[in-house]
Amino acid sequence: MADVAASGMPSREFNPWPATILVSLLCLAVLFLAPTAGVLLSSIKTTREIAFGQLWEMPDKLFLGNFAEILNNPAVHRYFLNTFLVTVPATAASIALGLLGGYVFSKLPFRGSDILFLIIVSGMFFPPQVILIPLFRLFNAVGLIDTLWPIIFVHTALGIPICTLLMRNFFSAVPNALREAAILEGANEWQVLARVALPLSLPAVAVLATLQFTWIWNDFLWPLILTNSDNKRTIMVGIVNLKGQYSVAWGVQGALSLIASLPTLIVFLFFQRYFIKGMTMGAVKG
Amino acid sequence: MERSARFWRVVLLAAPVAVFSVLVIWPLFSSFYYSFTNWNGFSSDYDFVGFTNYSKVVTDKLFLNAALNTVVWMVAAILVPTLLGLGLALLIDSRVPGGTVFKSIFYLPICLSAVVVGQIWVWIYQPNWGLLNTVVSAVTGYKLSYAWLAKPDTALGAVIVAWSWQQTGLSMVIYLAGLTSISEDLLEVCEIEGASVWQRIRLVIIPLLTPATVVVIALSVINSLKGFDILYIMTGGGPFHSSDTLAMHMYNESFKKYLMGYGSAISVVLFLIALTIIRVYFRQLKRVDEIYG
Fold this sequence. Notes:
The structure holds 2 protein chains of 2 kinds. Chain A is an all-alpha fold.
């Protein structure tokens, strides 16, 4: 064995690159993980330990009091429920609308459809501040401020550009012959969409579901503007509200951040493939 | 056939177009309208004040300060994640062991919310026990208790670092996707011809990554223009407005001071900036399409 290795080696020079790359990646990975590790560590430490500068040391024992505090706080339950009540319908609605739009733009183009498509997609680029005040006034006028409804509506509308873009690009890859065959068989457009296109488009729907769920769950600006009372807040605004209550209880804040990120972390872990695909698909093919 | 197609177009497009028009297009134009009024956010009536809000924009020292900060914020928030993401993508693409694990580690922050990211970094910059001061103190042996976020000189820069930490993974995955489309043969030929690693990256790989770069920069522009949450959480635009951006300034004027008319004028300016960038972007995209097909 030793002979074989020895006779094999001399012909090749020692290549320092793989080792250098691995070491630099390891260093960068530690740097990148440090912030997240800080939250993890804080969540299992007492306020006393953190204040005395022991946040960044490995703990000798697990302190679960912070998690108990958060999980027993009824306000947190409320925030979680509200966030689900906003995120799930808004995700579903924006995908459904994107599906309809994407199908027409891809399979039933008409004069001016390119321009309409461009207008819708450009909605992706605008800072939300541009539509903030009129929407605030609109929802105020119809008495929906301080309910969950306007948040659902706004996120549904703001999801239309990306969902339409992705669905159109996806449907463009589906052969037209498939649709034409179904039409010849006597199906109407709705039946083609529901029975042929939709089952085929499930991968794209999965991509959009992961993207939309994460974005809407994590959103801060809209619930901040559109709700006032504590029992209508979503989790991200809730975190900021509870900051006052737990002002120096950093460990509790850390546990809260972790629990609030749990749904998106789970989505990320299980659907990472879709997530990355969505980011690159929506982006690379404009 | 054509008649039924027309029917289905209307039926299928009705819902998405209606929702988008009412909740995105109409408010867009509405913002222009309110920017000529002095609406205060509560009362049902308001007066038309002509261009008063716009002349205020030009003379408002805080607006100019916010505009300047927005430029700094955007340039940094575009350059840093793009360059870092490119670097990481090149390193990971070199087939190191554990490439997927590294990819996940660098990508993880993107699924955290701006609120959580902001809070994490507030702790890192915490003067007494934050990671940054702890590490600096340990390395230099000199006890540092600098309050990074409370000093006008460092507040904006500190937020930019946090922002870059979150956004780098996004540009990295797009660059990784771009790298897979570069042919192995081409790189092998370069190697045989005696091109050094650096030459290969600079003269072959980076030019071939141009489409990916356009996408990365576009996404960075979009995201950084929207960058409000993280500033709100980490500094609130302070101290002394040193990290105020236009989005932040607009929020403060509209929802803190209830000057909704003036806030609308700021949002119109923000919109015009976005529009300019979009136009430049689409033109670039077309050029890239023409060159790279």
